[in-house]
Specification:
single chain, alpha/beta, Rossmann fold, Tyrosyl-Transfer RNA Synthetase, Structural Genomics Hypothetical 15.5 Kd Protein In mrcA-pckA Intergenic Region, Chain A, 3 domains, 6-stranded mixed beta sheet, 5-stranded mixed beta sheet, RNA-binding, ligase, nucleotide-binding
């Protein structure tokens, strides 16, 4: 999409979002959606959310060039609170990103200042896609480097460090685990919770920020800010920790072989993104609809009945994939992913797909490379759709091989220039579901 059409698409998506008025309070809806794992005083928070507009924030550290699904949980929570009339602050950590919060097993690799600055810009643009920057409760982007860079080490220790007790700091779960590991923990990562506490204090002072949200695994860092505000300002502030999203079997959601599902389409294509949601298990899909879509309680309960009665139709998964892909990549990209998914399996025209959708789909398949004139039988072997040329020829003779969904009728069929869509891509299929991409040499 062009910049203008993408902006219009994003504006339409934001305008269509609503909280569900079947709930008596926003807090009740957040609990029903499974977004509250731990919090400060729940009653006080519920009253705060129903009261006068206030500022709240969530921080996003630039430890990579893109946000991922864990961040999307936070962005959608922020958006739900904004829809209630409150003012979101999206903090991108130009200073904390230079350190990184402690990992469970080992020290982070420290990235260069130039790399972190580039990632700050990238994440800031991504955060801006999910919040409204218009109206009386317009969102604002902030960077914690603005208040930490001018602070000397002595001032930091005198004004901030003195309020933290080492005994309390080492009891934080992540710190305790690292202290008991072979790797230990450096002072750099140990100090992270102080920096996050400073962020909350500064936002409280500058914007009267009263609430911070984050993953429940960040609870120690979240409460470092509420405690610092209480000690320094004598004021009350709040925190919400969202649950870590896991699948029904207990595995961490959004991870596959250690790789996150990124929100950047260059790192995870809209087709791959769509397929990820489409393949959610029946046991998980309703929880995903609650967290990652703005569908109403009535709509989601209806999908729950459909999952129970007709799971083979996968209606809930299809709606989930459509909603979240549209949210992240836009309506055109979502439709392109649907069209590509249909076309790959012979239910649509591969030639009609735009290049981005086709390349995204083919990138997920087994691959073979070949020049014009390469026998299709050889490509089947190279793509590992068959084990030998003999097996390839038999499959062709039996009518079970297709190039771009057109049956291969001759064992001598070769790759032709007309097979190469968008100048360089073809799709091989054996049977109904076994696919491979061919990329021209």
């Amino acid at each position: 999409m062009t910049g203008v059409s993408e902006l219009n698409d994003r504006t339409e998506i934001l305008a269509a979002q609503r909280n569900d008025d079947s709930f008596s309070t926003l807090w009740e809806e957040l609990e029903w959606r499974g977004l509250i794992h731990v919090s400060t005083d729940a009653e006080a928070l519920s009253n705060l959310l129903e009261g006068e507009p206030f500022a709240y924030y969530c921080g996003f550290d630039p430890t990579a060039s893109s946000l991922h699904l864990g961040h999307l949980v936070q962005l959608l929570l922020m958006r739900r609170i904004q829809l209630r009339g409150h003012r979101p602050l999206g903090l991108v950590g130009g200073s904390t990103g230079l350190i990184g919060d402690p990992r469970p097993t080992a020290e982070r690799v420290l990235n260069s200042r130039e790399t972190v600055a580039e990632w700050v810009d990238s994440l800031g643009r991504q955060v801006s896609r999910y919040l409204s920057f218009e109206g009386e409760n317009a969102a604002r982007l902030v960077n914690n480097l603005d208040w930490t860079a001018p602070l000397s080490a002595i001032d930091f220790l005198r004004e901030i460090g003195k309020h933290f007790r080492v005994g309390t700091m080492i009891k934080k779960d992540i710190v305790a685990k690292r202290l008991n590991s072979d790797e230990g923990i450096s002072y750099t990562e140990f100090s992270y919770q102080i920096l996050q506490g400073l962020d909350f204090l500064e936002l409280y002072r500058q914007y009267d920020c009263k609430l911070q949200s984050g993953g429940s695994d960040q609870w120690g860092n979240l409460t470092s800010g509420t405690e610092l505000i209480r000690k320094v300002e004598g004021a009350s502030a709040h925190a919400i920790g969202t649950p870590l999203i896991t699948n029904a079997d207990g595995t961490k959601f959004g991870k596959s072989e250690g790789n996150a599902i990124w929100l950047n389409p260059e790192m995870c294509s809209p087709y791959t993104f769509y397929q990820f949601w489409l393949n959610q298990a029946d046991a998980d899909v309703i929880d995903r609809l609650k967290v990652f879509t703005f569908l109403s309680r009535a709509e989601i309960e209806d999908y729950a009945r459909q999952v129970e009665a007709e799971p083979f139709k996968r209606a809930a998964q299809k709606r989930l994939a459509l909603e979240v892909t549209t949210l992240v990549h836009g309506a055109a990209a979502a439709q392109g992913a649907i069209d590509a998914s249909e076309a790959l399996f012979g239910r649509g025209d591969l030639a009609a797909l735009d290049e981005s959708s086709l390349r995204g789909a083919v990138s997920e398949l087994a691959q073979a490379t070949g020049a014009v004139g390469t026998p299709v039988a050889q490509l089947l072997v190279d793509a590992e759709l068959v084990k030998s040329l003999g097996e390839a020829r038999r499959a062709i003779a039996q009518g079970g091989v297709y190039v771009n969904n057109v049956a291969v009728e001759s064992e001598d069929r070769v790759l032709e220039s007309g097979d190469l869509l968008h100048g360089g891509i073809a799709v091989l299929r054996r049977g109904k579901k076994t696919l491979a991409g061919v990329v021209a040499e």
